[in-house]
Amino acid sequence: MSAGTLNRDAPLVLGIETSCDETGIGIVRGRTLLSNTIASSMEEHARYGGVVPEVAARAHLEALVPALTSAVAEAGITLDDLDAIAVTSGPGLSGALMVGVGAAKALAVALDKPIYAVNHLVGHVGADILDESGTPFEYPTIALLVSGGHTSLLLVRDLVGDVELLGETIDDAAGEAFDKVARLLGLAYPGGPEIDRLAALGDPKAIRFPRGLTLPKDMAKHRYDFSFSGLKTSVARWVEKQEDLGNEVPVADVAASFREAVADVLLTKAIAACVDYNVPRLLLGGGVVANARVRSLATERAAAAGVALRIPPLSLCTDNGAMIAELGAQLIMAGHAPSTLDFSADSTLPVTEIQVR
Amino acid sequence: MLLAIDSSTGTSVAVVDRDGGILAENAVDDTMRHAEVVGALIRDTLSEAGVVAADLSAVACGMGPGPFTGLRIGIAAARAFALGAGKPVVPLVSHDAVAFAWYAAGNSGDLLIATDARRRELYWSAYSGVTAVGLPVRSAGPGLSHPEDVPASTGSRIDADTVSAGSLGMLAELTWAAGASFAADEPLYLRSPDVTMSSRKRVTA
Ligand SMILES: [Zn+2]
Fold first, then answer.
1. Is residue B201 part of a domain?
2. Which residues of A touch B39 (CB under 8 A)?
3. Nearest one of A15, A19, A22 to A63, comparing CA atoms
4. pLDDT of A135 above 90
5. Can A3-130+317-356 and A141-311 be said to share one CATH topology?
6. Potential cystine with A265: which of A211, A299, A309, B117 (Cβ 3.0-4.6 Å)?
């Protein structure tokens, strides 16, 4: 398991991602994607209206070996060919993370390969390297990562050496807000696609919902932080008022206005970070990137601010093992030593900890 | 030769051989650190036994019953190790390992085994003795009950704090040799996931 003999030019790395409800196994060789296998337990969570941690963790255990087997077959390699294993150590749901951590360690020992324990959020940034639609971003870049589990704004000066958290949600993740608002509008889970579909038929200016943490007093303390719980409450209050008045709730207008509020606050803060730090590059990641308005508003605002925008394909934006494998590969190529076998799952792992030793 | 892993209580890892017995065994009794310790335990136990993955015929895995989070980590590790080594997993009921060791030590009669299931409940299994070759005969369980609802022991009772992977491995060797069947390859959680279904609440009075 000596790191000295590691292939540092184009390492073949298998990545294991189990931080939320996707069991992701990815295989990369250097900067090339060989497989991105994802098994999701989303349908099992649908009847609960949100991710149930224990349901997710049980599903990871069942999906793990089948996903590993199909990823290896798709990549056309054998496990013995691997140079290293990479695994998400955090942040995420701890019971879910631990399934991946336990499996990755045992696999590394069985194969006698080095292991790299990496940060999930930084992995989302690393996904950009695998996007074949263009040359990946140079650093520094601002990264806006938005999903059901996180809403974070990062300043990435060096993917494997210098990542700073500028801000994050102080309550709900944006994806969670979509799920909760969908539920109160009687829509199915996951809420993002449902709201997106309905919003296309509504007027985004019909109702002026609040933009969390954008008032001057909030901006002083929370310039790059997000808050969606007040927005969700405000939507609920508005809907209840209509119901109390006996009015039919204009669901499409509510969906459009809500979606606009989320997209507006996300992009306002992201572009502000680009301007403040004089970084003309913005990378989007996370499942909420699937939202049509988030993408179109990002395109508009970035163009207006002279900021280059990158949005990797959705399969690399949602949680996946390929981004974890790629971050592992980048660490290897940059000469970093493997992690020891003693790391744990860390549900609150800070972004500054790109690799856990 | 087998690698054996049980995480139904703490984390226990052993390398066993049908003829040579338990070649190496290591455990961390802490019931909260399975993910942290399982990798090093496997590595160290293999190296203490002077064995590499290719030398093994299978991976014996304790399927519980046990608290979800820890139990799952041992099973995930056993399955991933087996995949990496290209060997099969042989699943066993964890309590059977405790019973096997007790009978193998020369004890006889009825036996009840109980382990902590948290939330003031116990996992339990009842045994009536051993087969001709020494395999424990489970007469009831594994079950999950409040302490007062656990079946009264008609013989001996063991409230086990740990499950030995060495015993589990030796039980697997004997089961294999006897051509007896292994447990189902699924975790014995014996409890549904906790789900609090919140109904849609009003935010205005
Ligand atoms: Zn994510």
1. no
2. 102, 105-106, 108-109, 115, 341-342
3. A22
4. no
5. yes
6. A211
**Is domain A141-311 annotated with CATH 3.30.420.40?**
yes
Q: Where are the domains of chain A?
A: 3-130+317-356, 141-311
Report if pTM > 0.90.
yes
What pLDDT does A47 receive?
Answer: 80
SS3 state of residue B136: strand
Q: What is the rounded average pLDDT of the residues B111-127?
A: 97
Q: Which CATH number fits domain A3-130+317-356: 1.10.10.60, 3.30.420.40, 3.50.50.60, 3.30.830.10?
A: 3.30.420.40
For A305, phi and psi rounded to 5 degrees? -95, 0
- Tokens for A334, please give them: 């940059």
- What is the C-alpha to C-alpha distance for residues A263 and A91, in angstroms, rounded to an integer? 24
Tell me whether residue B185 is in a domain: no
Q: Are A115 and A339 in contact (CB under 8 A)?
A: yes
Å from CA of A21 to ligand 1 middle: 10
Which tokens sit at A308? 């280059």
Output the pLDDT for position A2. 47
Q: Kindly give, in sequence order, each residue whose CB lies less than 8 Å from that of residue A81, ignoring residues fewer than 6 positions away.
A: A12
Is the ipTM value over 0.90, yes or no? yes
CA nearest B56: which of B176, B188, B164?
B176
pLDDT digits (tens, 9 = 90+) for A315-328: 999 999 999 999 99
Mutate to test the interface with B, among A41, A60, A105 (most CBs of B within 10 A): A105
Asked whether the CA dihedral B91, A78, A354, A138 is positive or negative, the reply is negative
Ligand 1 center to residue A148 CA distance, Å?
8
Distance A39 CA to ligand 1 centre (A): 15
